[in-house]
Automatic annotation (TrEMBL):
Start and end residues of each SH3 domain: 120-189
One Pfam family per UniProt: SH3_2
Source species, domain of life: Eukaryota
Protein name: MAGUK p55 subfamily member 6
The organism of origin for this protein: Culex pipiens (House mosquito)
UniProt entry keywords in alphabetical sequence: SH3 domain
Start and end residues of each PDZ domain: 14-89
TM regions (residue ranges): none
InterPro entries per the UniProt record, alphabetical: MAGUK (IPR050716), PDZ (IPR001478), PDZ_sf (IPR036034), SH3-like_dom_sf (IPR036028), SH3_domain (IPR001452)
Amino acid sequence: TGSGGGMPGETIKMVGIRRNPNEPLGLTVEVDEHNQLVVARIIAGGMIDRQGLLHPGDVILEVNGSAVTTPEELQTEISRAKESVTLKIGPSIEEEMKSARIMMAGGQVKSGKNLEAGKKLTCYMRALFDYDPTEDNLLPCQEIGLSFQRGDILQIINVKDPNWWQARHAGEDGPIGLIPSQELEERRQAYVPPEADFVHKISICGTRISKKKRKTMYKTKQ
C-alpha cells in the first residue's frame, strides 16, 4: 500500500477486544520520545492481559477507526465504544523496552528469561514502609495502585517496569496492583532526580527530602 507513515504494512495489525463496560481495560499508556502513543504496561489479570492481544511497547494508532495520539484521546474513544473495541496497532520504534536491572533487597537480579513481560514470578517480600496510592503523585493511575503497610508480605508478580512492580497481598486472591519499585522508592527517599526517567515523562514531586544513605525498601521473604 502507499501509506506514507514509514511503517511496513505487514507490521500493522488490527486487534479486536471484547469489553465489559464496567471493567477497566487494565493497561496504562504514555507518549514516548517519538510522540507515539504506546502501551506502557499491562496489568496482570486484567482484561487486556487475559485476552493476551497487546504487549508493552505496542503503538496504538486508532480506536474504532479514529486516530488517537494522546492518552486523553484514547480515553475518549474507549468511552464511546461499547462492548467491542478495535485497535490499530503498530510496532514501537524501540524494538523492546530495555530490560531493567532490578534492585531487590540489596541484591541485583537481572531481567532475563524468567522475568520477561507477562511471565509470573514467585517472589515474596516484606514491605519496610507504608504506601498509599491515593497520595502518590507519580502513580500513572491511582485506581490501580496497591496500598500496603509496613510489615505486610507482598507477592511480586511482575517486575518488567523499572518504576512500577505489579503485586498483590500474599495469601489473598485479591486484585493485582502497582507498587513503587525498589529503585523508584530509593530515588524518591533520597530525592535523586531521574535520568530521563525510563521514557516516563514524570518528575519527582513534593517536599525536598534530605539525601540519606541508601536504604532497603523491601526485604526478601525467606
